[in-house]
Amino acid sequence: MTGTTSPGRSRPRHRAARAAAAAALALAGALSLGTASASAVPARPAADPLARYHHQHLHWKSCLLGPDDATGRELEQAGAQCADVTVPLDYDRPDGRTLTVAISRIRGTDTAHRVGALLLNSGGPGGPTLGDPPFVRRAMRQVAARYDVVGVDPRFVGRSTPLDCHWPTGSMIRGAGTDRAGFEREVRFAADLARRCRTHAGDLLPYSSTRNTARDMDVIRAALGERRISYLGYSYGSYLGQVYATMFPGRTDRVVLDGVIDPARYGPRLLRDVEDANRHALRGWADWAAAHHAAYGLGRTRAAVLATVEATRSAAARTPLRVGGYRVDDHDLPVIVFNGLSQDNATAYGDFAAGVRDLRRAAEGRTVTPSPWLASTLEFALTGHGSAYGSAQASILCGDVPAPRDPETYWRDLRRAGTANRLFAPVTRNINACAFWDPPRERPTSIRADLPALLVNATGDPRTTYPGARAVRQNWPGSRLVTLRDADQHAVYGVYGSPCVDATVNAYLATGRLPATDVGCPRPTS
User: Which residues are catalytic?
Assistant: First the structure.
């Protein structure tokens, strides 16, 4: 859950620093809706109404779409192949319209000790995962040889059948502004986003949900010829894993959930109450920026750096800042700060510090060409470049759980947060498009009482906060929790560089045996 926004914008892969910037989005080719794809086996009488999907023949092909396809090139170099899986748009009408779900696969080489397929989801919701198998295999080290590692772009995401509402932004998450007039602008903005979705994707919205994504996963399982699948899910992917294991009991083998969402808190207002964790992360970044004052000039102490951030926020609230070709106001700047805090490492800290430096210079009236991180963040938040990402994300969140519909609910919540929290509460408690969405077609999944899974979370995670991981651990006595201590990090395994976390996960993937007790891992010293 990061990104300019959302539950789940973080891209937990070796490109994690780039992922913390809001531009690495799902851009790949559009696939259209049809009656049935060529890969589907013709319907035949069967007790299983999904037989033609479960028994379809997958046509494996190159993942490379063209000379500029960086994801496809990396997959090609790693030995991956790609395929399109046909799934029904509406599982209540399996003989109706169909979608394609794009997958990639790197086959395991140790066939004598093969475990099976490991399906991946790196969060969002709305994040593409098709490009992740090379990164995950590197994190798995020798264990990777025992698995077919499978990346999936869920329905309506990336190379799968698209859903695009033609938004002027990449996210429905924005700041509420500093007064009632600003909040009313946000009410109108959120209503317009929902209207655009009804106009441009109204035929698809009722079928965008985590439950349908889980159903698609089970079709993928069957089409791959697997009796059970193993699963690695980050951030929102942790919730998807819980839903899948509940809806399809007995069809999971080894389950790793990293950046754990408490299902009791999942929904369109998932970011509420993460303010304390983000303030802690901001202070940690400020300490780093103060130690690097010579490079960024933000202040020589934590207090001075935080004062620079607050002065810049205040300036944007008075008059929009001109940053390159963009205007940054009090709806935008808090989101930029929020977006800068999810990865606890020097590269991400430096990107954020350069962005704050640019914003401060703009507040001083200077001409600014934004740094790469800030430029990509602004492009995502203030143009339609990321519309498909934000549209898919909203369709899932709004399609899973209903949001309060009365704007006054949000206004009262913002007022309760008070002026002491002018940076984060306007982002985490603001109204969004889900307030104007049609009701979900299904009730949320009641997550099963127990699952023997390996849970991973950092104590300072500013998106999927640590109490959520502890709540899931308490509800699942058969699981184990791996805790990375003293890190303000979202997504840990294979991303952060913790030998303790990575070794614990790999031992579980290798043996299928959970640790005897919960595991605490120290923050690496270098």
Answer: 235, 461, 490
